[in-house]
Amino acid sequence: MKKFIPYPINGENLTPSDLLQIIERYLSEIEESLIGDLTNFSENARYEPNSLQIVSIVAIGENCYSMNYQFRWTIFNGCLDINAQEFTTQSVTFLVKPAGLELDIIDLFKGSTAEEL
């Protein structure tokens, strides 16, 4: 799934620090897509709001970058006596284009049993 962050690049050579500032402005708009579906951890896994943090941005090619980020998620199941908090680190690649940043987010959606068939 592609997510686009509008920003007039205008041929500027942006540093990873510049890109970090741009992305942080739009983090709340792309947060849900970056977190994805947590049911691959557990049916009871829940994202801890406002815990998403960008760890690093690294150039991997011409106008192509990788962004590592982390967030906290929790599991609570009283019946099984489970109450845990975990941090997960993931990464996403993105391209710097003339009109902004295009993130290539892997869709972490666990389909229903019917969709699997």
**How many strands in all?**
6
Which whole number gives the mean pLDDT?
A: 84
Question: How large, in whole angstroms, is the Cα Rg?
Answer: 17 Å
The rough form would be described as: elongated
Structural class of the secondary structure composition? alpha+beta
Written overview of the protein:
The model is unreliable at 112-117 (pLDDT under 50). The chain is an alpha+beta fold and 117 residues long. The protein is 21% helix and 44% strand. The protein has a domain at 2-38 and 49-68 and 90-107. It contains 2 helices and 6 strands. The protein has helices at residues 16-35, 113-116; strands at residues 2-6, 45-47, 53-61, 64-77, 82-97, 100-104.
Short description:
With about 120 residues, this protein is α+β, with helices and mostly antiparallel strands. The protein has helices spanning about 15-35, 115, and strands at about 1-5, 45, 55-60, 65-75, 80-95, 100-105.
What does the secondary structure layout of this molecule look like, with pairings?
Elements lengths: L1 E5 L9 H20 L9 E3 L5 E9 L2 E14 L4 E16 L2 E5 L8 H4 L1
Antiparallel strand pairs: 1-6, 2-4, 3-4, 4-5, 5-6
Pick out its properties:
single chain, 117 residues, alpha+beta, six-stranded antiparallel sheet, 2 helices, elongated, disordered C terminus
